[in-house]
Amino acid sequence: MTDTLLANEPLIRVSFFLSVLAGMALWEVFAARRPQQIGRLTRWPNNLLIVVLDTLAVRLVFPVAAVGTAFMASENGWGLLNLVSLPGWLAVIVSVLVLDAAIYFQHRLFHAVPWLWRLHRMHHADLEFDVTTGLRFHPIEIILSMAIKLTVVLALGAPALAVVIFEVLLNATSMFNHGNVRLPLWFDKYLRLLVVTPDMHRVHHSVIVRETDSNFGFNLPWWDRLFGTYRAQPEKGHLGMTIGIEDFRTVQDLRLDRMLIQPFRPAHKEARLSVRE
């Protein structure tokens, strides 16, 4: 089973990725939450090309990805869960929870540390909020994120199955909670008790700093509530709120070349920067 999982892991991840991307794209066409001023042909090619660059960067820097690292930890007895006796199913659940909490704290760190924010702000600088926003991360941020993830996998001794489940969940929920999709308000109220919903995460993409610095969860919503970073709704409502950050608001800033050099460009809105710097 181990060899089969390792051999099929890329196919599993790509299959889920394409299925969720296609499903969310169709959902956005038929039940959009907000009207979009900037068309998909302007934004999507650049956002999707970032995914290709991110994938190449990770493969180049980390020949052994998270699942391979989990196999190494298991074979060598590395990590906490390889030192204690837990049922396999419980080790998987614990690992998924710990990895999700790690991503939450990583996300907070990328907002709190100025030079990390410069990398992460590319994600926030999208002027619309839809499924491809959930894929838009700077390659350097992706490399740092993978390094953090591998460290957690090694320290925890997470089972390979848990890592596959987590990777698929994280990717799928990122596309889901960035979706420009409409859910019944009563359903969203209860669904966000179990998973981060688009209305919950959209608050995080507000141009208002105190809203940007809230709702950090990507998958499970409990960390925000537990650690005091939960904000139920945007101040100006979902239709009235402004998406993005103040420093980069032109259509030219959505181009791939501008996205890649953005962390190295100066920010001009000192009021916003002063919150972090």
From TrEMBL:
GO molecular function: oxidoreductase activity
Domain Fatty acid hydroxylase: 93-229
EC category name: oxidoreductase
Membrane spanning residue stretches: 12-32, 44-66, 86-105, 146-170
Keyword Membrane: yes
Superkingdom of the organism of origin: Bacteria
Position of the signal peptide: none
InterPro entries recorded: Fatty_acid_hydroxylase, Sterol_Desaturase_Related
Subcellular localization(s) per the UniProt record: Membrane
Any matching Pfam family: FA_hydroxylase
EC number: 1.-.-.-
Principal localisation: membrane
UniProt KW keywords: Membrane, Oxidoreductase, Transmembrane, Transmembrane helix
Protein name: Sterol desaturase family protein
UniProt source species: Marinobacter azerbaijanicus
